[in-house]
Specification:
By secondary structure, this protein is mostly helical. The chain has one domain (2-281). The chain has helices at residues 2-21, 24-46, 50-69, 73-96, 98-107, 109-125, 132-137, 152-177, 192-213, 220-246, 262-266, 269-281; strands at 181-183, 187-191. A two-stranded antiparallel sheet has the order 1-2. Helix 4 crosses helix 5 (98-107) and helix 8 (152-177) crosses helix 10 (220-246). The longest helix is centred in the C-terminal third of the chain and has 27 residues, at 220-246. The protein is globular. 34% of the residues are buried.
């Protein structure tokens, strides 16, 4: 637990510094490296054919280049709707037919991982690029073409803080008070108590922050979207946990002490980025 907390503090400090003080090009490059390495961890778990791994990597890099080259408002919106639909489908399958999800992850893991990670990456680097102000400037390469990040850096910080609060509150409350298992066959450590805490605490904290410190009147829809983001943090986590169970892996890697791999940290962001894109900018 101490390793987990220590690693979280280092990561949070590093990301905070980069988001507030670095150039958008560096931030875009960092996001891209994170998503590429996460796909590598996905493949390392699910694929033992080195040629297939190289080919999947080639497809990933090619798709990233093509998405940047032909980026447009229409493409951002289309992939946002596609991502939201896909994650709704995953959510429903997890509830009603988890064995079907396991079967697809086992048989089509490379394709599944490719779609989830490439769409989340594109949402991350295109965040806010459907707004009127930015579309008038028509940045061809999205965040890589920006000369300044503000105010988008605050939206990135919002996503990171919301997901982190959801993860921390769920983990701590689950460890201390958790008794009833949420999905024991997929993630034995997750409990209903931790799941509820991961939804309520982040929403309550941000509600107080916006009302008390920003004097910003939140609408009911804003609260509902925050709740939805927190719910989907767990859905993203459960999806990657399902992948690990399919291939008998404890973690996606060992790069981050106390956490596992990069994909173990990115999993909650995969669905949330698309929800934020739709909620705030579309």
């Amino acid at each position: 637990m101490l390793n987990r907390i220590f690693t979280s503090i280092i990561l949070a400090s590093l990301l905070l510094t980069i988001l507030l003080f670095s150039h958008p090009l560096l931030i875009g490059a960092l996001f891209t490296l994170i998503f590429i390495y996460s796909y590598y961890e996905w493949l390392k778990i699910s694929c033992n054919n080195i040629k297939k791994i190289y080919f999947s990597f080639f497809l990933m890099l090619t798709a990233m280049f093509l998405l940047l080259e032909y980026s447009s408002v229409f493409l951002v919106r289309s992939l946002t709707y596609f991502s939201l639909t896909l994650w709704l489908f995953i959510f429903l399958i997890l509830i009603f037919n988890p064995s079907y999800l396991k079967k697809n992850l086992t048989n089509n893991s490379e394709i599944f991982g490719f779609i989830l990670i490439i769409t989340a990456w594109y949402m991350a680097i295109s965040l806010g690029y459907t707004s009127v102000t930015i579309t008038q400037n028509s940045y061809k390469y999205l965040i890589f073409s920006s000369t300044e990040l503000s105010p988008l850096n605050y939206y990135y910080l919002f996503i990171i803080t919301l997901v982190s609060l959801s993860d921390i509150s769920g983990y701590v409350i689950g460890r201390i008070f958790g008794k009833r298992k949420l999905y024991e066959s997929i993630s034995p450590n997750k409990t209903y108590e931790g799941f509820i805490a991961s939804i309520i605490f982040p929403t309550l904290i941000f509600y107080c922050y916006f009302i008390l410190f920003q004097s910003y009147s939140l609408l009911i829809t804003d609260i509902l979207f925050m709740l939805l983001c927190c719910i989907y943090c767990t859905i993203g986590d459960l999806l990657v946990s399902t992948l690990k169970r399919c291939f008998n892996a404890k973690d996606t890697g060992n790069l981050l002490p106390g956490h596992g791999g990069v994909l173990d940290r990115l999993d909650s962001y995969l669905p949330v980025i698309a929800i934020i894109q739709f909620w705030i900018f579309i």
